[in-house]
Amino acid sequence: MANSIVLTEKSPTENSSPRGKERERGTGREKEREKGSDFSELSRRIADAGLLRRRPLYYTLRFGAVALALAGGVTAFLALGDSWSQLFVAAALAVVFGQLGLAAHDLAHRQVFTRRRPSETGGLLVANLLLGMSYGWWMNKHTRHHANPNHEEKDPDVAPDILVWSRRQARKAKGLPRFVGKHQAALFFPLLTLEGLNLSFSSFKALRSPSMKRPVLEGTLLVAHFVLYFGGLFTVLPPGKALAFVAVHQGLFGIYLGSVFAPNHKGMPMIEEGTRLDFLRRQVLTSRNVRGGVLVDAFMGGLNYQIEHHLFPSMPTPALGRAQVITERYCAELGIPYHQTGLLASHREALRHLRSVGEPLRQAR
């Protein structure tokens, strides 16, 4: 994959040329495409297939299963008491926390409820109280990512905080990103073990941000989460085992989240400032789908259909598979590259990209 996108939309002068006028005499659909309405046509096809309607039964069953798994993990923790077997509980709860993160994601995108109030209420309870992550902070960050995926200046998910995502960023890197960037491909998964703690730290830090709408409520829920989390651990377990539980639980939780989100965009083309792309191409060209069937669907919570999710963020998870078929065919009609691969291959592509963009740092003296 190329490291950056340099494509631009057709300028007005192109459409006024003899060749442009000849194209305008084509079919009605071609005329619509000249006006930049490619996404409108895809949206019509998706709506006609009924893929945007809510799926209450699906989410009731899915969220119910996650709630039962969480209750089962807590029950097992209390039943085992002072035992090193608790590390198995920690590993199981890491998966449950990952599923809670996916549930919070779907609530934030209003895939579950059409109305804002129940979506926010559910998001606050799942993200803040159960996960220890600020719903408001994450929502703001994720919304900006969806608007400009893989944009070097506008996507917070590719900001060079620790890792660098383009050679341009690598050449400008200083401090920790410059040090880590030299070997970031090898360090990627070890760093993911800290991602859960990083989300919580960033959440508390964001409480002071002017963009936070309900800092008191969110802060109260975050504190309640950690009082219950650490209070339960240090009440049932001695300090050494409690810390080991935290290390296993938070470490595997971070790896799980990274394994779900990293394949979606990492290693796909980066968009430089000044590049102009319409909505359809901006979302498709910067996203990667991951094949794998039912198991991958469950593991990634539907985010393996990343292209369709970015095009239709509020589409319920069970509809994404059918939307994928429609979208891939439509992109083929337009000649838009549509990339999907297997789970392991997606990680190889992401790691290969990380190594490639870190090359300037390894060459620097």
Overview of this protein structure:
With 365 residues, the protein is an all-alpha fold. 67% of the residues lie in helices and 3% in strands. The chain contains 20 helices and four strands. The chain starts with a strand and ends with a helix. Residues 6-36 have low confidence and may be disordered.
Largest sheet: 2 strands, parallel
Count of helical regions: 20
Enumerate the spans where pLDDT stays under 50 for 5 or more consecutive residues.
6-36
DSSP strand tally:
4
SSE blueprint and pairings:
Layout lengths: L3 E2 L6 H4 L2 H7 L3 H7 L3 H11 L7 H25 L5 H23 L7 H16 L3 H13 L19 H6 L2 H7 L2 H9 L2 H12 L8 H22 L2 H27 L4 E2 L7 H7 L3 E3 L2 H7 L5 H6 L8 H15 L5 E3 H15 L1 H5 L2
Helix pairs in contact: 4-18, 5-6, 6-7, 6-14, 7-13, 11-19, 14-19
Short précis:
By secondary structure, this protein is an all-alpha fold. Helix content is 67%, strand content 3%. The protein has helices at residues 12-15, 18-24, 28-34, 38-48, 56-80, 86-108, 116-131, 135-147, 167-172, 175-181, 184-192, 195-206, 215-236, 239-265, 279-285, 294-300, 306-311, 320-334, 343-357, 359-363, and strands spanning 4-5, 270-271, 289-291, 340-342.
